[in-house]
Amino acid sequence: MTVQKSLIFLVDDHPLVREWLTNLINQQPDLIVCGEADDGPKALQEISRVQPQVAIVDISLKSSSGLELIKDLTRVSPELAVIVLSMHDELLYAERVFRAGARGYVMKRESTQKMVEAIRCVLDGKRYMSGRVAAAMAERLVDGHNVDTSPIMLLSDRELEVFELLGQARETSQIAESLHISMKTVQSFCARIKEKLNINTERELLREAVQWQENRHKR
Helix, strand, or coil here: 46? Predict the structure, then answer.
Protein backbone atom coordinates (compact mmCIF):
# COMPACT_ATOMS: atom_id res chain seq x y z
CA MET A 1 0.00 0.00 0.00
CA THR A 2 1.42 3.37 -1.05
CA VAL A 3 1.73 5.94 1.75
CA GLN A 4 0.54 9.44 0.89
CA LYS A 5 3.47 11.66 1.84
CA SER A 6 3.11 15.19 3.22
CA LEU A 7 5.04 17.78 1.22
CA ILE A 8 7.63 19.89 3.06
CA PHE A 9 9.28 23.03 1.64
CA LEU A 10 12.57 24.43 2.97
CA VAL A 11 13.58 28.11 3.15
CA ASP A 12 17.12 28.65 4.40
CA ASP A 13 20.08 30.52 2.95
CA HIS A 14 22.59 27.89 4.13
CA PRO A 15 22.93 24.95 1.70
CA LEU A 16 24.24 22.64 4.43
CA VAL A 17 21.15 23.26 6.58
CA ARG A 18 18.87 22.53 3.63
CA GLU A 19 20.82 19.35 2.91
CA TRP A 20 20.59 18.25 6.56
CA LEU A 21 16.84 18.88 6.64
CA THR A 22 16.28 17.13 3.32
CA ASN A 23 18.13 14.01 4.47
CA LEU A 24 16.27 14.00 7.79
CA ILE A 25 12.81 14.51 6.32
CA ASN A 26 13.20 12.14 3.37
CA GLN A 27 14.09 9.33 5.78
CA GLN A 28 10.56 9.51 7.20
CA PRO A 29 8.04 7.16 5.57
CA ASP A 30 5.29 9.80 5.35
CA LEU A 31 7.25 13.01 4.65
CA ILE A 32 9.14 14.30 1.62
CA VAL A 33 10.87 17.56 0.69
CA CYS A 34 9.19 18.95 -2.42
CA GLY A 35 11.32 22.06 -2.91
CA GLU A 36 13.63 24.63 -1.39
CA ALA A 37 14.60 28.30 -1.65
CA ASP A 38 17.26 30.55 -0.18
CA ASP A 39 15.22 33.76 0.05
CA GLY A 40 11.67 35.07 0.39
CA PRO A 41 10.74 35.93 -3.22
CA LYS A 42 11.85 32.52 -4.50
CA ALA A 43 10.02 30.81 -1.65
CA LEU A 44 6.74 32.59 -2.39
CA GLN A 45 6.96 31.68 -6.07
CA GLU A 46 7.86 28.03 -5.54
CA ILE A 47 5.45 27.43 -2.66
CA SER A 48 2.63 28.79 -4.79
CA ARG A 49 3.61 26.31 -7.49
CA VAL A 50 4.18 23.09 -5.48
CA GLN A 51 1.56 23.66 -2.72
CA PRO A 52 3.30 21.99 0.27
CA GLN A 53 1.59 21.27 3.57
CA VAL A 54 4.50 22.59 5.67
CA ALA A 55 7.18 25.24 5.12
CA ILE A 56 10.27 25.33 7.35
CA VAL A 57 11.59 28.90 7.37
CA ASP A 58 14.83 30.26 8.80
CA ILE A 59 13.94 33.53 10.55
CA SER A 60 17.36 35.04 9.68
CA LEU A 61 17.58 35.11 5.89
CA LYS A 62 20.46 37.09 4.44
CA SER A 63 18.71 38.61 1.44
CA SER A 64 15.14 38.99 2.70
CA SER A 65 13.01 39.19 5.84
CA GLY A 66 11.96 35.92 7.45
CA LEU A 67 9.23 37.65 9.45
CA GLU A 68 7.78 39.33 6.38
CA LEU A 69 7.92 36.03 4.50
CA ILE A 70 5.85 34.36 7.24
CA LYS A 71 3.25 37.14 7.00
CA ASP A 72 3.16 36.83 3.20
CA LEU A 73 2.81 33.05 3.34
CA THR A 74 0.02 33.30 5.90
CA ARG A 75 -1.82 35.73 3.65
CA VAL A 76 -1.46 33.89 0.33
CA SER A 77 -1.49 30.31 1.67
CA PRO A 78 -3.54 30.29 4.89
CA GLU A 79 -3.63 26.47 4.97
CA LEU A 80 0.17 26.23 4.94
CA ALA A 81 1.74 25.36 8.30
CA VAL A 82 4.92 27.40 8.83
CA ILE A 83 7.64 26.19 11.20
CA VAL A 84 10.33 28.72 12.08
CA LEU A 85 13.90 27.52 12.43
CA SER A 86 15.94 29.83 14.66
CA MET A 87 19.33 30.09 16.31
CA HIS A 88 17.71 31.68 19.35
CA ASP A 89 15.17 30.60 21.95
CA GLU A 90 14.32 34.08 23.15
CA LEU A 91 10.75 35.33 23.39
CA LEU A 92 11.73 38.39 21.40
CA TYR A 93 11.33 36.44 18.17
CA ALA A 94 9.16 33.54 19.32
CA GLU A 95 6.18 35.75 20.10
CA ARG A 96 6.60 37.72 16.89
CA VAL A 97 6.66 34.68 14.60
CA PHE A 98 3.52 33.24 16.18
CA ARG A 99 1.77 36.60 15.79
CA ALA A 100 2.90 36.61 12.16
CA GLY A 101 1.14 33.29 11.61
CA ALA A 102 3.76 30.58 12.23
CA ARG A 103 2.59 27.38 13.89
CA GLY A 104 5.93 26.07 15.11
CA TYR A 105 9.22 27.35 16.52
CA VAL A 106 12.30 25.11 16.58
CA MET A 107 15.84 26.05 17.59
CA LYS A 108 18.71 24.88 15.40
CA ARG A 109 20.47 23.36 18.38
CA GLU A 110 17.51 21.05 19.11
CA SER A 111 17.84 17.34 18.35
CA THR A 112 16.82 16.07 14.94
CA GLN A 113 13.89 14.26 16.53
CA LYS A 114 12.46 17.58 17.71
CA MET A 115 12.20 18.79 14.12
CA VAL A 116 10.31 15.66 13.10
CA GLU A 117 8.04 16.10 16.13
CA ALA A 118 7.37 19.70 15.14
CA ILE A 119 6.42 18.72 11.58
CA ARG A 120 4.02 16.02 12.75
CA CYS A 121 2.57 18.36 15.37
CA VAL A 122 1.67 21.14 12.91
CA LEU A 123 0.37 18.60 10.39
CA ASP A 124 -2.09 17.58 13.13
CA GLY A 125 -3.26 21.19 13.34
CA LYS A 126 -1.45 21.96 16.60
CA ARG A 127 1.26 24.46 17.52
CA TYR A 128 4.79 23.47 18.46
CA MET A 129 7.41 25.21 20.56
CA SER A 130 10.27 24.13 22.78
CA GLY A 131 9.63 23.55 26.47
CA ARG A 132 11.77 26.54 27.39
CA VAL A 133 9.89 28.94 25.14
CA ALA A 134 6.52 27.52 26.21
CA ALA A 135 7.44 27.97 29.88
CA ALA A 136 8.50 31.58 29.33
CA MET A 137 5.28 32.36 27.46
CA ALA A 138 3.21 30.75 30.21
CA GLU A 139 5.05 32.81 32.83
CA ARG A 140 4.27 35.97 30.93
CA LEU A 141 0.57 35.12 30.72
CA VAL A 142 0.31 34.16 34.40
CA ASP A 143 2.32 37.07 35.77
CA GLY A 144 0.87 39.60 33.36
CA HIS A 145 4.18 41.24 32.57
CA ASN A 146 7.03 40.97 30.11
CA VAL A 147 9.62 38.39 31.05
CA ASP A 148 12.07 40.31 28.92
CA THR A 149 11.97 43.94 30.07
CA SER A 150 14.49 45.11 27.49
CA PRO A 151 13.52 48.23 25.50
CA ILE A 152 14.17 46.09 22.41
CA MET A 153 10.70 44.61 23.02
CA LEU A 154 9.28 48.03 22.10
CA LEU A 155 10.55 47.79 18.53
CA SER A 156 8.20 46.86 15.72
CA ASP A 157 9.03 43.84 13.57
CA ARG A 158 10.63 45.97 10.86
CA GLU A 159 12.53 48.10 13.38
CA LEU A 160 13.87 44.95 15.00
CA GLU A 161 15.03 43.61 11.63
CA VAL A 162 16.85 46.87 10.86
CA PHE A 163 18.40 46.86 14.34
CA GLU A 164 19.59 43.27 13.89
CA LEU A 165 21.16 44.06 10.51
CA LEU A 166 22.89 47.11 12.00
CA GLY A 167 24.32 44.74 14.59
CA GLN A 168 25.77 42.69 11.75
CA ALA A 169 27.63 45.82 10.59
CA ARG A 170 25.46 46.26 7.50
CA GLU A 171 25.49 49.61 5.72
CA THR A 172 22.22 51.49 5.14
CA SER A 173 22.30 50.59 1.45
CA GLN A 174 22.80 46.90 2.27
CA ILE A 175 19.90 46.92 4.72
CA ALA A 176 17.68 48.58 2.14
CA GLU A 177 18.59 45.97 -0.45
CA SER A 178 18.14 43.07 1.97
CA LEU A 179 14.70 44.21 3.15
CA HIS A 180 13.63 45.49 -0.30
CA ILE A 181 12.93 49.00 0.98
CA SER A 182 14.42 52.41 0.21
CA MET A 183 17.41 53.92 2.01
CA LYS A 184 15.13 56.75 3.15
CA THR A 185 12.83 54.21 4.78
CA VAL A 186 15.79 52.57 6.54
CA GLN A 187 16.83 55.98 7.86
CA SER A 188 13.29 56.56 9.15
CA PHE A 189 13.37 53.22 10.95
CA CYS A 190 16.74 54.13 12.48
CA ALA A 191 15.32 57.41 13.75
CA ARG A 192 12.40 55.61 15.41
CA ILE A 193 14.74 53.00 16.92
CA LYS A 194 16.89 55.74 18.45
CA GLU A 195 13.81 57.38 19.93
CA LYS A 196 12.50 54.13 21.45
CA LEU A 197 15.89 53.12 22.82
CA ASN A 198 16.71 56.65 24.02
CA ILE A 199 19.78 56.87 21.78
CA ASN A 200 21.02 60.20 20.45
CA THR A 201 23.53 59.50 17.68
CA GLU A 202 24.11 57.09 14.81
CA ARG A 203 27.37 56.00 16.43
CA GLU A 204 25.58 55.11 19.67
CA LEU A 205 22.92 53.23 17.70
CA LEU A 206 25.52 51.16 15.87
CA ARG A 207 27.40 50.39 19.10
CA GLU A 208 24.17 49.35 20.84
CA ALA A 209 23.14 47.12 17.92
CA VAL A 210 26.53 45.39 17.73
CA GLN A 211 26.57 44.84 21.51
CA TRP A 212 23.06 43.40 21.45
CA GLN A 213 23.98 41.03 18.63
CA GLU A 214 27.09 39.85 20.46
CA ASN A 215 25.12 39.24 23.67
CA ARG A 216 22.55 37.15 21.80
CA HIS A 217 25.22 34.83 20.46
CA LYS A 218 26.69 34.36 23.93
CA ARG A 219 23.42 32.91 25.28
Answer: helix
